[in-house]
Write a structure and sequence with these properties.
Elements lengths: L3 H12 L6 H9 L10 H12 L3 E17 L4 E16 L8 E8 L6 E5 L5 E3 L4 E7 L2 E9 L11 H29 L21 H5 L11
Antiparallel strand pairs: 1-2, 1-7, 2-3, 3-4, 5-6, 6-7
Amino acid sequence: MTSRKAKHHRIQSQSVPQASDYESDLNYLSDVPPPPSDRTDEELNLSVLKRHDHAVISLEYVAPYAVVYVFSPTSQQWEKSGIEGTAFICGLSPTEERDPRYSVVVLNRRGLENLNVELLSSNDVEVTEEYIILQSAKDGVPRVYGLWVFSEPPPSSTSHQRAAMAHKIQECTARVEMGTRLAEEQHANGDDNGDDAVVEDSIPMGRQVSLKELFGQQRQNDDAWS
């Protein structure tokens, strides 16, 4: 006759689960590819950008790789900012003062600081052979950024990247200036509909100091910056 103690020991031993080989299980799971995403690349990029700037509503252009330089007024030379990664031209949600709105964003692969410059005036944009130059103000201090966009010589598919992004930035800046002028005229004329607004060749109010005024140099001296 089997004792009650022996029966209890047998049942207990059968109920103990076998130890799992955690590393084997982990390797097995890591070999399983993640399920495909239903979202497009543009939707994924927008999702990431909105985490950094909630005002982003659209993508106008994407350059796979760019390096951001900062112009030093002291040394009169370009210095690396430590920001490099994918560059975006983004559409922003409009405001009462400005419609449309655009910005240039570089999501940094090397750190937490990104570049985010709103396009306000053509006076804040210069295009040289090497850089797309953008002026902005950080903590009330003017900053001049040089955007070096990666592009290879023809017939590479990236050969047009720098010129295409520069053209798109200038195009978006022109739209902003047009919208600003219309808004100013509507405000001046008291016409909320703006059907009869006439665009004059004027300089937008409240603009920043231009790149030429800031450095006291003409466009032909841009090569000295690079």
